[in-house]
Design a protein that fits this description.
Number of helices: 7
Number of domains: 1
Number of strands: 0
Shape: flat
Strand content: under 5%
Order of helices and strands: HHHHHHH
Distance between the termini: 70 Å
Structural class: mainly alpha
Radius of gyration: 19 Å
Length: 135
């Protein structure tokens, strides 16, 4: 029974991860409802199951590293860092680079599966920037 509970927890965690990291951006990009976006995601997922399962393991490892680093930084500041993290706005500002990195990483990971999942515009090269006429 314990093994079944662990398996159900892992499946639930993957569903939550996929919903947050992939289905929500697809909903935003295509302007669709959740079930339609799940259909688009499942089409991509069926072609590359292994990559998405490894993505989940990578995100788990990165989350563990982030928690360890936050704990170390909190202890190095004589627990003042923990007090700052408790304050809602200040805690959000302090951890903003971490949350942005995780969001951008998931979107960049999804972009490799086709141009229809491209969220960020191409960066201009220095020649393109200098070649534009000045107004």
């Amino acid at each position: 029974m314990g093994l079944g509970l662990i398996v159900m927890f892992i499946i639930s965690a993957y569903i939550g991860l996929f919903l947050n990291d992939f289905v929500a951006p697809i909903m935003y990009k295509k302007g669709q409802k959740a079930m339609v976006a799940w259909g688009h995601f499942m089409a991509v997922f069926s072609k590359a199951r292994g990559y998405f399962l490894l993505y989940g393991i990578l995100i788990l490892g990165l989350c563990i590293c982030v928690v360890i680093l936050v704990m170390i930084m909190g202890l190095l500041t004589c627990c003042i860092g923990f007090i700052l993290l408790i304050i809602p706005y200040i805690g959000s500002v302090i951890t903003l680079p971490i949350s942005y990195t995780f969001r951008a990483f998931s979107v960049e990971f999804l972009e490799q599966f086709g141009p229809e999942y491209k969220f960020f515009p191409e960066a201009k090269t220095t020649t393109e920037i200098t070649a534009e006429p000045e107004v």
